[in-house]
Specification:
This protein is α/β, with parallel strands linked by helices. It contains twelve helices and 15 strands. The protein has an eight-stranded parallel sheet with strand order 5-13-12-10-9-8-7-6. A three-stranded antiparallel sheet has the order 11-15-14, with no helix packed on it. β1 (27-29) and β2 (35-37) form a beta hairpin. The protein binds flavin mononucleotide. Residues 63-66, 69, 88, 90, 129, 131, 155-156, 178, 206, 209-212, 255-258, 277-281, 373-375, 377 line the site of flavin mononucleotide (FMN). Flavin mononucleotide is lined by residues 63-66, 69, 88, 90, 129, 131, 155-156, 178, 206, 209-212, 255-258, 277-281, 373-375, 377.
Length: 409
């Protein structure tokens, strides 16, 4: 019998909780001298994820969540568990006193502090997420490399010139673009080869169920042709020649709507992903850097609360509906001035509100002045748990799915 445990006191223990990862093998010596093993040794762990010379013990990347949702607290907690903890660079300077007078320096300092704080809390793998749309993109990439971050993830646009912002000396960060199609992956890989003689170290493929800004047209979001299950093999295929030419693997990491260890198993063993990136699930953790009110918006969300908005950035995004967004729907404008123009595509004079202010307000808990970005599965978040417990239950579910797949033997 597998030992039963309940990772989250106060809820009914499910079958997914019955396997404990990391348990090791318990060998029983029988009276007659022969050996037997308990069920614990059958716990199947996912293969580690290799990005260049970095080995990620648990192939789970915590997706970057901008404007203060994933900072040093969450990132270091995930890295301690063997995954990749990711600090979102967007908005790291928002608590610096000189933000309005020295935007670039304030954000650089803010990001440095977050990386150093996270590093003090773990010797695990840390990444930053830098959106291409940020006006101080290059500076944030250079700062991250100088701070010796392990991996830079970059999306919300094609990071065509990312390699030019980092010193690609011996221990440079791994460079991982985030894309939403095979076409985008091959355009980017071709450009990097031509301009920098560099092959991306891995790719994240983000499907339409993700939270935050989405790399799809509105009408593509519910179209099965753009489902993550289709995009992952498409990107793997698009990278085949680049991988052969580079003579090394280019791991493809699946993101968007992955919620359980079972989802993780399917993405990795049926669709060709080498790992997964998850964000929404990590909002429901004690260590997530957002306010309690932000997390409560997730706890209170029903399926019908999740909606697509047209962001001032010019891309669709997925968020939890609230009174602020309904006021915007009604054509109300939230007056503001824009001292620093943080996002290149933002047409701030015509935009009904400042997205940076709105997201920062929500992060602090002033939900009436902003809103929460969230993935399509945010309605399933029903408790706040420590990152350790979440990672354990994901690995337990993964093991259960693996056992079922192999016939439970
Ligand atoms: C609150 C929130 C903020 C996000 N902010 C960013 C961001 O700043 N940059 C980015 O590339 N992706 C961002 N994302 C997308 C995530 O990094 C991730 O790839 C995606 O949400 C994965 O899908 P999941 O949330 O269903 O797990 C955000 C997602 C959420 C939920």
């Amino acid at each position: 019998m597998a030992a039963s445990f309940n990772p989250t006191p106060g809820r009914k223990s499910s079958s997914a909780d019955t396997l404990r990862p990391n348990q090791g093998i318990i060998i029983l010596i029988k009276i007659d001298g022969s050996c037997a093993t308990t069920d614990h040794d059958r716990t199947i762990r996912p293969p580690s994820l290799r990005i260049g010379d970095i080995e990620i013990r648990v192939p789970i990347i915590q997706g970057g969540m901008g404007v203060g949702i994933s900072l040093a607290g969450l990132a270091s907690a995930v890295a301690r568990e063997g995954g990749v903890g990711v600090i979102a660079a967007a908005g790291t300077g928002y608590t610096e006193p000189d933000l309005h007078t020295a935007f670039i320096e304030a954000n650089r300092r803010g990001l440095e502090k977050q990386i150093r704080t996270a590093r003090a809390g773990t010797d695990g793998i840390l990444g930053v997420n830098i959106m291409v749309a940020l006006s101080n993109y290059g500076d944030l990439a250079t700062t991250s490399a100088q701070e010796k971050i392990d991996i830079i993830f970059s999306g919300a646009g094609l990071p065509l010139d990312l390699p030019s912002h980092v010193d690609r000396g011996r221990a440079h960060p791994k460079l991982v673009p985030i894309v939403s199609s095979g076409k985008a992956a091959s355009i980017l890989a071709r450009q990097w080869r031509k301009r920098y003689d560099y092959t991306p170290d891995a790719f994240v493929v983000e499907g339409p169920l993700a939270g935050g800004h989405l790399g799809f047209k509105k009408e593509q979001i519910d179209d099965p042709a753009y489902a993550l299950e289709r995009l992952v093999p498409e990107v793997v295929e698009a990278l085949r020649d680049f991988r052969d030419a580079a003579g090394r693997p280019i791991p493809v990491i699946a993101a968007g709507g992955i919620y359980t260890g079972g989802d993780m198993f399917r993405m990795m063993h049926r669709h060709g992903a080498a790992g997964v990136q998850m964000a929404t699930r990590f909002v429901g953790t004690v260590e997530c850097d957002a306010s309690d009110a932000f997390k409560e918006a997730y706890l209170n969300a029903g399926k019908e609360s999740l909606r697509i908005i047209q962001s001032p950035v010019g891309m669709p995004g997925r968020a939890i509906d609230n009174e602020f967004l309904r006021r915007v729907d009604r054509g109300e404008k939230v007056p503001y001035s824009c001292p620093y123009h943080c996002l290149i595509p933002c047409d701030w004079e015509r935009s009904p509100y400042c997205i940076a202010n709105a997201l920062f307000s929500a992060r602090k808990g002033a939900m009436h002045q902003g809103f929460a970005f969230a993935g399509a599965n945010a309605w399933r978040v029903d408790r706040i748990v420590p990152v350790h417990d979440l990672m354990e239950s994901l690995l337990g579910e993964y093991a259960e799915a693996a056992e079922q797949d192999s016939g439970g033997s």
